[in-house]
Amino acid sequence: MPSGSGAEGEARSFRMFHDDSMKSFFRRLTFTPDGSYLLTPAGCVESGENVTNTTYVFSRNNLKRPVGHLPCPGKGTLAVRCCPVYFELRGASAKDEISPKSPPALFSLPYRLVFAVASEDSVLFYDTEQSFPFGYVSNIHYHTLSDISWSSDGSFLAISSTDGYCSFVTFEEDELGVPLKEKPQIHVRTPGAAADKKAKKTQSHKENKLDFLEARHPNLCISRPSPHPSFLTTGA
């Protein structure tokens, strides 16, 4: 990734992710449940000889450059998993408890999402209303963590390790937040939908031109294309 200039004005490049020197057989990235953001582990931020482990946040609208990152103070991050439950935004009282010096939120959503980031030896818990973790779990396994997974109701997080054991982090009712009564309506544009919309717009434009020609030249014989393709069949 190009960033800044060298001592002699030459552009310098920095790696965004760890290479194969990172001792991991997997890098488990994920989209948020609404598909708005892509969360990618195994990131790194190079500053001179110092390297900070991080998790990058990409917007679905622009996957070329991250909109932010979530530093991990310990070892490299391996996996990101989002809680499938949508939560209400915090009230004014809860916002007052957050320090005014807190970093601004990286996400702009009408609801609150919770996700967990697993590093080699710890798990950090984040939500989409703040850019620093609200929970931290470590020293629960003898070897490197391998994966994490939420229950369907968000009541617990399962953590697996290469030592052959699993741990469970449980949450009391409403501990993570107040769930929305109904899941929000998600409107996400996909490449296929955009192509269909463009094709319909083009077809409508052609039909308008034909209507105009028929109005100007009523005696003109105009052949309109069939909306459905025809197939020729031949007998044996």
UniProtKB/TrEMBL annotation:
Coiled-coil region(s): none
The keyword Methyltransferase is annotated on this UniProt entry: no
Keywords: Chromatin regulator, DNA damage, DNA repair, Nucleus, Repeat, WD repeat
InterPro entries for this protein: Beta-prop_CAF1B_HIR1, PTHR15271, WD40/YVTN_repeat-like_dom_sf, WD40_repeat_dom_sf
Highest taxon above the source species: Eukaryota
Gene3D superfamilies referenced in this protein's UniProt entry, alphabetically: YVTN repeat-like/Quinoprotein amine dehydrogenase
Keyword Zinc belongs to the record: no
GO biological process, one term: DNA repair
Cellular-component GO terms for this entry: CAF-1 complex; nucleus
Boundaries of every CAF1B/HIR1 beta-propeller domain copy: 6-176
Subcellular location: Nucleus
One Pfam family per UniProt: Beta-prop_CAF1B_HIR1
Protein name stated in the entry: Chromatin assembly factor 1 subunit B
Source organism of this protein record: Lonchura striata (white-rumped munia)
